[in-house]
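JOB MANIFEST
job_type = single_chain_structure
chain_count = 1
residues = 538
[input]
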Amino acid sequence: MKSYEEAHTPEELNRPVPYLPKKTSGWQTLFVSVLWFCLSGVSFYLGVQALKAQHSEKNANPIAVDQAKPLQLANPSVKSSLSDLGLWDSLGKWWNSTELFPTEGSKETGVSSGNDSKPALPQNDDEVSFRASTWFSDYEAMKKTVHLYNEIHPFIYGFKGRTTNNGDLYSLWGASQKHARVAELRSLNPRVKIIPTIFRWENKNEKISENIGMNGRNDIRDRHIQNILYEVDTYGFDGIDIDYEGMSCEKKEKFEEFIVILSKEIHKRGKILSVAVHPKTSAKKSGLKACKGLNEKINMDFAENWRGPMTHDYAFLAKHADRIKVMAYELHPRKYRNPGPGPQAPNVWIRNIIEYAKERVPAKKLYMAIPTYGYDWALNCNAKIKSVYWSDALRRQQIGVTRQPTNIDKVLAESKNSNSWTNLSRFSWVHEGKTYEDPSIWYHSEGCDRVAFFMNRKAFEEKMTLLRSYDLGGFSFWQLLSDNDPGISTYLELLVTNKLPPVPKAQTKPKNPDVKQTAPEDNQDQEEAKNNQDLVKK
């Protein structure tokens, strides 16, 4: 319009004209709506794929998104239509994934990123049929692997006093350390149950007496129980593990009274009572044994006729404790007398222990504890016996011959100078007809022929397969250390995430009462107690 011309609006356009929508049918409206929804979905999907491709080309860092709830559609018919097209599953998987943009470190590429991620945790306690547990004194090793366990036993408490007790405990962790470490372990595995151990091995220099009410000192026993409860309450433990070993037979009834009282107090708090017991196997012939100071004779239906096992009545303790943990190790302790060199926990022995224990302990309360260590003996000289852990075994393998499985009969027959191996050959009858899953190293050092038995993943896995076949409550081992075969942790990762294949149920086999643990010597008691304390202090 030019500037000198007046604007002119026709009269009929000065009045507002109402909007008259065009009438459409219902099926057209539905068709357009569905078409719009599908095109929007396809556009959204293509856009995301383009962003993923661009992100992959730039090699940018992955963008983590919070875990979302599964996508829900109000109209089930639409969901059904998408499922028929195969789009619903794809959209649901994408929506519920934790990574929007897969990178080289994601599962989609199948390559580890190297970034720290939360490890898989064990199932909730009420969902677990076979619990993983361990004793430990190596805190750094525990931090790295706590996600692999349902229960852990910090090996930190002992008795104050030596030949007499006053009810008091000592702890290898200070007060602030206990608070901090419990919090840290729970942050690493919120489901783990922390049940610390109180340990005492009785010998002539250290007794378990007044703390369980011996010598008429129920007042000291009660003080001991109150000290235990104080620790559980103050530091928020999930229970307590009682590991009172090597007690002489007259302490059986007082120990049982102590367990009954402690059990009531622990259970009032909704906590767990665990008791570690000596291994037992069935006797060829049962009998009753009188012990001075006891009101009743001991039923000797087990083959291990020495003081420690006599005080641990499996059936009685199982009525009051939540966990009975059988210490199935030290079959061949660190000594040169009977039974001499050999593995610490061969399956032929573990099977006998399980079959004895299952007749007296409910399966879900019963745990088998197996070793992660071994010993090294001289075969033809009187040299020092040594403990063997994973790094020790790796060094010895460089200079010797490793056998797994180990058939000692065969080794003796094939070795040219085995007639000089008196430390082993005089006990050859112990090994007749037995082949051990445990590995051994045969080597020469410092003028002596030697043999070292140790633990690796293969032997550990075979023992665990045996335990799993019996439907036990779980397992433990002595003990978790940084110097264990790393393959053991790899196996446990599969166990706690239910990635192991099922095992056949165990079939009852003839018992072998001759495979039994022998009584330790007094000097062995002292040395073993000292070694345990040294391990705890590490």
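[summary]
Confidence is low (pLDDT under 50) at residues 1-23, 55-116, 523-538.
Residues 390 and 485 are 6 Å apart (CA to CA).
exit_status = 0
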